[in-house]
Each structure stands twice: as C-alpha cells, then as structure tokens.
Specification:
This protein is of the alpha/beta class. The protein has 13 helices and 14 strands. Bound molecules: flavin mononucleotide. Flavin mononucleotide binds next to strand 6 and helix 9.
Length: 376
C-alpha cells in the first residue's frame, strides 16, 4: 500500500498537498479549516510588518472561461498581500499551533528592501511558532512600487541579498518563491540556493491583462474605469509552471543536490500533482484550485495521486520524484534520435524482406526482395 506521507526539509507532511499563499490561507479560521480537511501543510497569505500600507480594491479578479463548458481555466488577480495587522497574525499563528500542533504552518513573508525589517519579521514569526518560511519575492503587482515582491524577485542580486539576510537569522527551513516574469528562472533559483535557502517554490502568477470589455472599451478588472496589469493563475498557466519547475529541478540535480522544489501553478487534480512530482517537486501547492473547488478538493486529489502510485507500483513520493527529468534534451538531439530510430527500423524491415530460401520468393514483392539481397 503506497503512502503519501513525506518529509521535506525536515518537515513531516501527511501528504504533499500544500495550500499556496493567497485567499485560501488568509486568516486563522480558514487555515484551521484546511488542516481539518487534511491538507499536508498550509502557507498563509503573505504577511508584512505594516499592513496599514496595504489597500485593496474591488473588483480585483478577472476570469477566463471555456467557450464550450463555461469552466474557469484562467484567473487574473490584482490583490495585494494581507491587509490584516501583523500582531493579529502572530496571535493567530500561536492559536493555530495550539489547536493543530501537528499541522505544518508555513509563514509567507514579504518586506521592503531593508535588512532589519526582514530579520525582524523572521524572528517574530518564529517566536509565534511557525514551522517554516516562504519568502514572497514575486508578487507582480502593487508591491514593486514599494521595492517589494517582483522588484526583488526579478533581480537575482537583490534576491540573493534578501535571502542572505533571512538565512542569517532563520532557524527554520526557508523556501524562496520565484516569479515567472523572468527570461531564465534558473538565475533567481541559483541566487536563492547560493544564499543557503533549503528550497524554492515556483511559480507565482504571470503578469497579465485578462481582457478588454468590448462595450465599454475598458480593460478588466475595471476599477473606476481603469485597471493595472495583474497576476495570471489557474489551469492555463500549468504548462509554463511545469517547464519552469523542470528547469529548476535540473539546477538542483546538477548544482545543488538535496535542495528542494515546491511546485505550483494550475494544480487541480492528483494527476496534475503527479506531473509536478515527476518533474522534481517534493511538494505541490494549490491556490486558485481551492478558490474554484473549496477546501474538500484535497480528498479527491489524494485518492487520484494514490491511484497513480498504485498503478506504477510506487511506494513513496520519493520513488517517482524527478523520474521524468531524464527525458528532456535538445531539439538537435531529438533529430539525431529520430534519424537513428528510422534507420534501425528500415534495417529491420530490409532484414525481414531478405529471403532465406528460394521457396520464399513471391511475385508481388519480387523487386523489393531483389533489392534486399543487393549491395549497391
Ligand atoms: C487571488 C490570489 C491571491 C494571491 N496572493 C498571494 C500572496 O499573497 N502571496 C503569494 O506568494 N502568492 C499569492 N498568490 C499566488 C499563488 O500562491 C500562486 O503562486 C499562483 O496563483 C499559481 O498557483 P495556482 O494556479 O494554484 O493559483 C495569489 C494568487 C491568487 C489567485
């Protein structure tokens, strides 16, 4: 009987399904609910020391639906980090560790480009009992104006410096969350590993414009007639997330063995999760999926992942983590492999046509049979 239980960076998780930072981890009440529903770990909505600067707008989401079924497959948000006070969060972290001592509680944190602020937020979250950290250096909207989020995440030098400040004081595992809004995700991932982070998480949302209303001619989501580019998530981003996770996993495999990857972007089923694990993820996060399907979706996801493991006779998550990575190569290598395979197939076919005795000559294949016996 396979098991979903897994240990990642010393954290003991009942399963690899983690609530990704966002509305599904936005206060103590919903985080408790996620633990009760059986999530392997919960990452809270990103917290900062001074929430008074965080002012959200309504509406702040825009969605794309299938023309045939109406199902939502793309989701843009212009939501900021948590607008709830840091002291309230600290009280809730403590209460959650009392009510759910075995629940793995991960603090998503973000601060301005300031060493004291980053080190203070780490220390105070640790005192409140959180089990580990995710550094949000990847929010594509709002925060860059304050030199936060993607402004840091898109600059590997700044990212490495922030990670070093955190690693100087953190006694719990640290994952740095990557922005996909870069040309080579390997560069910020390497910067986080150089700074000593145990893992990285990928991906945050992709900078996007969800659409333009053809009656009003205003772009969406429309806030008093205007908008700002937001972050794209949900099923539509999964192929991009898988590609970036593959690229980070190759860096881990060849340069930083033992470091970990938490994969996310469009996960809605156990089969989706299996693909992230096959490309090297140790855990798999879900954010928008929970907003579409509710906290209970972890039940079917666990069943689907177990069914996949049973089918392939994998006993543990580690048995198949990264198993599909060796099958990525260059395009020129694909061309070479295909030419070799075709030549081998032709040689085999020619061999079959080569008669071994005169009784095998047939009228229909006479010319081919003659060719097969010929040189030149
Ligand atoms: C409404 C919304 C709010 C989000 N807020 C945060 C946040 O506060 N911090 C963060 O690191 N990521 C945040 N994210 C990004 C998600 O954690 C995740 O990286 C991204 O949405 C891709 O995963 P998904 O397709 O499972 O949602 C948010 C996403 C959404 C949709």
């Amino acid at each position: 009987m396979p098991t979903l239980a897994t240990t990642v960076d010393g954290l003991k998780l009942p399963n690899p399904f983690v609530i990704g930072s966002g509305p599904p981890g936005t206060n103590g009440k919903v985080i408790g609910r996620a633990f009760d529903e059986g999530w392997g770990a919960v990452i809270c909505k990103t917290v900062s020391l001074d929430a008074s600067k965080v002012i959200n707008v309504q509406p702040r989401y825009g969605r794309l639906r299938s023309r045939e079924t109406g199902e939502i497959y793309g989701w843009e948000n212009i939501e900021l980090i948590s607008d709830r006070s840091f002291d309230t969060w600290l009280d809730e972290f403590k209460a959650l560790k009392d009510s759910h001592p075995d629940g793995v509680l991960i603090a998503s944190i973000m601060e301005e480009y300031n060493k004291n602020a980053w080190q203070e937020i780490v220390g105070r979250c640790e005192e409140a009992g959180v089990d580990s950290f995710e550094l949000n250096m990847s929010c594509p909207h709002g925060m860059p104006e304050r030199r936060m989020g993607a402004a840091v995440g898109e600059d590997p030098v700044a990212l490495e410096e922030v990670c070093r400040w955190v690693m100087e004081v953190a006694t719990k595992p640290v994952w740095a969350k990557m922005t996909p809004n870069v040309t080579h995700i390997e560069d910020p991932a390497r910067a986080a590993f150089r700074a000593g982070c145990q893992g990285v998480a990928a991906i945050n949302t992709i900078r996007s414009v969800i659409g333009v209303d053809l009656d009003t001619l205003r772009p969406e989501p429309n806030v008093e007639g205007y908008t700002t580019p937001g972050g794209y998530s949900c099923q539509a981003v999964r192929p991009i997330a898988l590609r970036m996770c593959m690229e980070i996993s190759k860096v881990i495999e060849t340069e930083y063995p033992g470091r970990t990857l938490s994969g996310l972007g469009g996960v809605e089923t156990g089969e989706d999760a299996a693909q992230f694990i096959l490309l090297g993820s140790s855990t798999v996060q879900v954010c928008t999926g929970v907003m579409k399907m509710g906290y209970g979706c972890v039940g079917p996801m666990k069943d689907q992942l177990l069914a996949f493991m049973e089918k392939h006779k994998f006993e543990t998550i580690d048995d198949f983590r990264g198993k599909s990575l060796p099958y990525f190569t260059t395009h020129s290598d694909l061309v070479r492999r295909q030419a070799e395979a075709r030549a081998a197939k032709k040689a085999e076919a020619d061999k079959k046509k080569m008669i071994k005795g005169d009784a095998e000559w047939t009228g229909d294949d006479f010319v081919d049979q003659s060719d097969a016996l010929a040189r030149g």
